[in-house]
Amino acid sequence: MRLLASLTALLFSANVFAQVNWQLDKSHSNINFTVSHMVVSETSGKFKFFEGKVVAKSDDFVDSDIEFTIDASSIDTDDEKRDAHLKSPDFFDVAKYPQITFKSKSFKKIDGKNYKLTGDLTMHGVTKEVTFDVIYNGTAKSPSGITKAGFKVIGKINRTDFGLKWNKMLDNGGLLVGEEVNIVCNIELDKKS
């Protein structure tokens, strides 16, 4: 019985010590999106301010704990008038809901560099489970000796699922603003010592 307890404690300790903390390198990361405009084109934008952390439980990042927080008021579509509208109660209502958050539930390797990331996305006061495709680009050591890891995150969400329902009907029957939002994030992480 004592041997079993010792082995359990040893395994638990090894598991805890195997975890590695990774910090977001903000200068080499971005969160971008595109959405249909009048059916005939797309408008693109980004969020300028966000934080993120990853706790890796293995070298290949499988089952890592991943959390991101985005400053909703940092939305930038390169048009001040449109950005002000997006921050208003018609869309993000940033005065009432200043943050967009993501917390992972699972991070699974599919094959090679391809992964699936599932978690809870909270936006505009609504939480929904979402799944993103992730490409793990590997690790490399910077000239200053910092170990870096790179990921590309790709996915789609329906903004109306989160209460962002403002729209106008066009003469051709289409919608002024698309409901499906395409998301592409490039994430670079620094291994913490």
Automatic annotation (TrEMBL):
Keyword Signal: yes
Stored InterPro entries: Lipid/polyisoprenoid-bd_YceI, TTHA0802/YceI-like_sf
UniProt KW Signal keyword: yes
SUPFAM superfamilies for the chain: YceI-like
Signal peptide: 1-18
Coiled coil segments of this chain: none
Keywords, sorted A to Z: Signal
Domain Lipid/polyisoprenoid-binding YceI-like: 21-190
A matching Pfam family: YceI
PANTHER family: PROTEIN YCEI
Official protein name in the record: Polyisoprenoid-binding protein
Organism lineage string: Bacteria, Pseudomonadati, Chlorobiota, Chlorobiia, Chlorobiales
